Amino acid sequence: MPVPLKPLFDELARANRILAHEGIMDAFGHVSVRNPDNAARYFLSRAIAPDLVLAGDVREYTLESEPVQQNDERHYIERVIHGEIYKARPDVMAVCHHHAPEILPYAITGTELVPVFLMAASMGQKVPHWDQRTEFGDTNLLVSKPEEGRSLARALGPNWMVIMSRHGATVAGRSLREVMFRTYYSIRNAALLTQAKALGEVKALSVGEIEQSGDTNLQPGQLARAWDYWSQRLEHSEIKSGKKTAGARRSKTPVKSKGRKRK
Ligand code: MN
Fold this sequence. Notes:
- It is a single chain.
- The chain is of the alpha+beta class and about 260 residues long.
- The protein is built from 8 helices and 7 strands.
- It has one domain (about 5-250): L-fuculose-1-phosphate Aldolase.
- Strands 3-2-1-4-7-6-5 form a 7-stranded mixed beta sheet, with helices on both faces.
- β6 and β7 (about 170-175) form a beta hairpin.
- α1 packs across α8 (about 220-240) and α2 crosses α5.
- The structure holds manganese (II) ion.
- Manganese (II) ion binds near residues 99 and 167.
- The site of manganese (II) ion (MN) has 5 residues, from loops.
């Protein structure tokens, strides 16, 4: 592993575990980053549950979603989601795909998801819906073929998040921290919107509020504050559960993928 990439792999692995720890992912879902040194490649874990991902599980893929190191290990079936979005959107540096339960009612009904509180402004003005059935008829609902990934990327268009009918959502960002922030707060927003609709009339953020608040939320200081908070919560939980020794530093996340003990 080239030295400069180690911190990136640690951060990507930690992002996976944060998403699991915060209840956004269970055994399924994945988050990736584009290779900062080679825009034609991206990094994603091999096919394991997000809560189990360590830096040593990170693999490199081409934009055709072929693993750079060919071997017999398992890769995520839906990795074309990542490859096709990186291909279609040169500005995107990180992608997260999840099935968070708060989003699913929107994915099931086709109800519009609009930002309704300040922390969710970074969702942007439009969250398009993509229905795999429209173009592909009956499928197993997995986005596993390149043409399915391309169709999803087209539906995302210039936006930052796309809801996938009867399946989940995919979120894009200009950095890993940005995609984490947008993923987390768009899910919070979905829960709040569902609750608010039961209470009364929903007054969503205005276009101006989305622009101004979105910019504020995505300042590096804000992103770092959120990241550090999720990171600390994860660390406490890992120490408590014995996954990690008290006092162990973030940068010391083990890189070995075999023979480790993780329950
Ligand atoms: Mn999926």
